[in-house]
C-alpha cells in the first residue's frame, strides 16, 4: 500500500478570557477521504512580560460542526439536547511555549473543528492603553496519513486479503448504498503462516469526536465470525481495519464479505411531487388560480393512495429546502405541513444540512399531533432525528440509535400533543426525521390506524434570536460563518435563558436612572459657566450632558432602554462631548487671549473628532488633548506669573477652595474610570465618574474678568441711549 502524508496549517490566534462563545477561537480543518491517521500539533505560547502568569488553556475538538461548550456551567434551552465536547487542557507555567500532540486513528473524513479559550473572564473593564494584557497565542496544525490505494470491498463478493504483521493493519472500505436498512460483515477462512490459532481484531467505522461509535469484532480460531449493523450511514464509504493479534513475524490471511439489506421506499410519484412544487410557487402569481386549484387537488390525492405504500418498509415525504439567509433555512413539505403516520412502516423526512455552511446554527424540529386523527386513545407517535442514516426500527428498539451515531428521540401523544427539539450546531450531513405510530398492546392492534402530525423544521442562527436579554452575533473564521448569543443584564446560557444571575426589573431601572440622571450634575457647571460669561463652554457642557444621558439610556441591557437615534451615533457624540469638555475647560483655565482661545477650541475639536473616528476607546484620545491643553495652561500661567512677578493664580483662596478640590475630584474620577469599573459595578462606578467630572468642572472654571459685571451683555441693549448722552453738560455743571 502507498501512504501519502499531508500537512495543513492555520495562522495563530490570540486567545481571550471566556465570557461567551465569541471569545473561543475557532479552527476549521477538512480531513480527506481514506485517512488512516490524524495528528494535531497544538502550540501555545505566552508573552515574557511581568504581567504574564501561569495559565490553563482549554482546547475542544469536534467532527462535523463547532464544539458545543459550556465553560461557565450555565443552562441550555429547555428543549435542547447537549452532549459534552471532547477537550484537553494545556498548561503554560514556567515555560513560555507548550507543544502538545493529539493522535486520532482512522478519523472520519470531512470537517473537523477546534475551539480554544482561556479561563473565565474576571469581568473588569480595562481602558485601552492603561494596562498591557499578556498575549496568549494558540496555533493548531494538522498532519494526515492517507492511503492512496485503499482496497474496495464490493457487496456480496468475498475478498481474500493478508495482514502482513501486527504493526501493519489492513485497511479496506465499502460503499454503503442509499436505503440500506442493515449491513452484515463476515470474516472467514482465517489462517496464519505459522499454523497457530488465528486471532484478529476488526474495527468498523471511523472515530468521530466527542463520541465515537466504532464497532469492534474480535475473531479467534478458524471459525467464521460476523457482525450485523442496523442503519449504516447512507451513501458513504465505511472504513474497515483488520489487525493481527498474533506474533510479530506471522502473517494472517482472511476472507471478508459484506452484504446489505436494502429497504424499498414508498412515496407519492415524482410527477405529483413536481406538480405540487410548481403549484406552491405559482400560487402567488396572478392569473394562475385555476392551475393552482387542480394541482392542489392532485397533490392532496397522493397521500390517500396508500395501498402500495403500506407494502414498503418506509414512506418518503418530499421536503423542499428553502434558503432564507446566512445559516437560515426553512424546510417545507410539499404535501402540506401535516404528515400521515402509521404503525406498519416509518414515515421519513430528509433535512438536508450538507452544504458545509449549515453547522453554525441551531436546527429546530417541532411536532404537533392532531388529536382528532388518532383513533386509539393510548397510541403514541415516536420520532427520531438522526444524522447520516434514519432509524427504521422505531417499533422495536425505541432507543433512536443507528449503526455509528446516537439520534435524538421525540414523542407525542394525546396527553402531550406538542414537542420541540433543538440541535445546537448540527453536524454537516443529511439529517432524517423518522416517525411511526406505536400502539399500547402491539402493532397488531392498529394495522389500519393513522395519525396526522404537523412538522415544522428550520435552521436558525440563534434559537429564539437569543431572547430579550441577548444579541445574536454572526462570527466568522476565514470563510466559515457561525452564530452565538451575547447575553446582557446578568442573563447567561447558550440562548440567554439562564436567569441565575439575572438582574431584576427594579435593578435594571435603577441602573438606567443612575447612569442617566447622574449627568444632571452638569447643571451646576453649566450655571457657573453662564454666570461667569463662558457661553461657549456652557454650550459644550450642555451638549455633553444631553448625549451622555441618552447614550446611557440606549446602552442599557434588558427592558429599560430608550434610543432616540442610532446607537453608534449616540456613542460617538457622547465620547466626543466628554473629551471636548475637558479640552475647553483646561484652555479656559489658561486665560489666553480670546481669539487664540477660540482658535484652539475649533482646531482641538476637529482633531479630537478625527482621532475618535479612528479609535474611540483608545486612552490617548482622551489623554492626548488633556496633556496638550495642560502644557498650554502651564505655559500661560508661567507667562502670567513672570509678567506680574508673583505666583499665578495669586489668591490663596483660589487655590484652597477651587483649584485643589477640582484637581482632587478630577484625579479621583480618572482613577475610578480607569481602575475600578467592572461589569457588575459599572452602573454605579460610571455614575460616580459622571458626578466627579461635572463637579470638578464647576470648581476649575476661572472667575470672570474683573472689569466685566455679571450679565453685562444685557446692558449693552441700551447702548443707543448712552451714545446720545452729552458729556459737556457734566463739565459745565462742575464749574
Automatic annotation (TrEMBL):
GO CC list: plasma membrane
Alphabetical list of PROSITE patterns matching this protein: EGF_1 (PS00022), EGF_2 (PS01186), EGF_3 (PS50026)
InterPro entries attached to this UniProt entry: EGF, NGX6/PGAP6/MYMK
EGF-like domain location: 458-497
Entry's localization field: Cell membrane
Residues covered by region (Disordered): 285-314
Protein name stated in the entry: TMM8A factor
UniProt superkingdom: Eukaryota
Transmembrane segments: 510-534, 595-614, 620-639, 655-676, 682-701
The family this protein is said to belong to: Belongs to the TMEM8 family.
Disulfide bonds: 462-472, 487-496
Sorted UniProt keywords: Cell membrane, Disulfide bond, EGF-like domain, Membrane, Transmembrane, Transmembrane helix
The keyword RNA-binding is annotated on this UniProt entry: no
Ranges annotated as biased composition (Polar residues): 304-314
A Pfam family that the UniProt record links to this protein: DUF3522
Tagged with keyword Metal-binding: no
Biased segments, Low complexity type: 291-302
